[in-house]
Amino acid sequence: MMNHPGTAVAGVDPHIEQAGAGCFLAVQQDTTVTCVDWEVFHGWTLDDPDFAGMITVQDGDGAQVGRADWTVPTDAAADRCLAGLGWRRVGAWSWDWSHRRVAQVNASPIIPSQQLGRMSVDRDRWRQPGAARHKRRVGIVYARSTTVLAKRESIDAGIARIRDVALPALQRMDGFIGLSLLVNRAARRGILTSSWESKAAMRAPAGPVGVIRDRAVETLGGTMRVGEWEIPFMHRDHPSHPGACARGTWLRMDPAAIDRAVDVYQTVSIPAMEELDGFCSASLLVERASGSAMSTATYDSREAMQRNREQTDAVLSAGCQETGAKVREVREFELALAHLRVPEIA
């Protein structure tokens, strides 16, 4: 039986079969063979260079409205192709009467609708040899975060002391990479994050330097809470500049889902965020034992951050749906100090 992208699909599972103009269907197609031979299809390995596939999107009448190359024969890779085209899966992948993998999809709010007809992006291609999208750094980077409930009148003095006194002192410590400070003045909240080459360096006795650091943080006033994290992912579209702001999202999930969450963040969430006007960078911090995570997305300005709230929420919702993560808190900050210096990690 041949695969014809323009042919209407019949006999789809009940949760997919919804006739009408508002129904769109995504179809996985193996273009290496001329017939739908799923025994052959399932024989492909994930890194087989001979595999060639295609994801098509069809309307309720079976007319093709989008397509993308599909280079890795998995449902997750198909989802990334859909995200690149501007579509979001709203139903599970399942088999139709002709044994094709199909799923109901909707136009994603992440990408402006005027782009849907002209985008054909293969989000998997960067994973192939010789075409890496993000640079990979060998090893793990660690971070210590100090959250301060500050006195409002002490915030500017605290920022200055951390920048002028604590940061130069920390830069003399072995294994220190960099430092950032997020501030929400309305909530009187500051988050100081330092990055380190190893867990041992992060936990090493700081001596006089530690005293300088702690006193600088104390200048902000109020109470403090310290956390330790692993940084499995860091991506910069471009450097930040004065006036940049950041949106922090705290998540909780099954600790066993952490690696899956990192993969979804890297391959689905980041490509979607890169489409947002004013997006600057993003990082993911995880605490594996508790299943905690913190995502920070930085934007060129407060206006850009606020303008993209709806799209960012859609990205967050899609990621949580894929990983089972629960959102604990979302907070917006000004980027008071941007010297974290964590290299590109993917």
Q: Radius of gyration from the CA trace?
A: 23 Å
- Assign the structural class, choosing from mainly alpha, mainly beta, alpha/beta, alpha+beta, or little secondary structure: alpha+beta
Instruction: Quickly count the domains.
Output: 2
Q: What is the overall number of helices?
A: 8
How does CATH name the architecture of the largest domain? Answer: 2-Layer Sandwich
CATH topology of the largest domain, what is it called?
A: Alpha-Beta Plaits
Strand content: 25-35%
Number of beta strands: 14
Class of the largest domain in CATH?
Alpha Beta
Overall mean pLDDT stands at: 78
Mind explaining what this structure looks like?
The protein is of the alpha+beta class. It folds into 2 domains: 104 residues, no CATH class; 199 residues, 2-Layer Sandwich (Alpha-Beta Plaits). The chain contains 8 helices and 14 strands. The strands form 2 sheets. The chain has an 8-stranded antiparallel β-barrel with strand order 7-9-8-14-11-13-12-10. Strands 1, 2, 3, 4, 5 and 6 form a 6-stranded antiparallel β-sheet that branches. Helix 2 packs parallel to helix 6 and helix 3 runs antiparallel to helix 5. The longest helix is centred in the middle third of the chain and has 16 residues. The chain is elongated. The two termini are 41 Å apart. The N terminus is likely disordered.
Set out the fold topology.
Layout: E1 24-30, H1 38-41, E2 53-58, E3 64-70, H2 75-85, E4 87-89, E5 94-95, E6 101-107, E7 141-149, H3 155-170, E8 176-184, E9 189-196, H4 199-203, H5 208-218, E10 223-236, E11 245-252, H6 258-273, E12 279-287, E13 292-299, H7 302-307, H8 309-323, E14 326-339
Antiparallel strand pairs: 1-2, 1-6, 2-3, 4-6, 5-6, 7-9, 7-10, 8-9, 8-14, 10-12, 11-13, 11-14, 12-13
Helix pairs in contact: 2-6, 3-5, 6-8
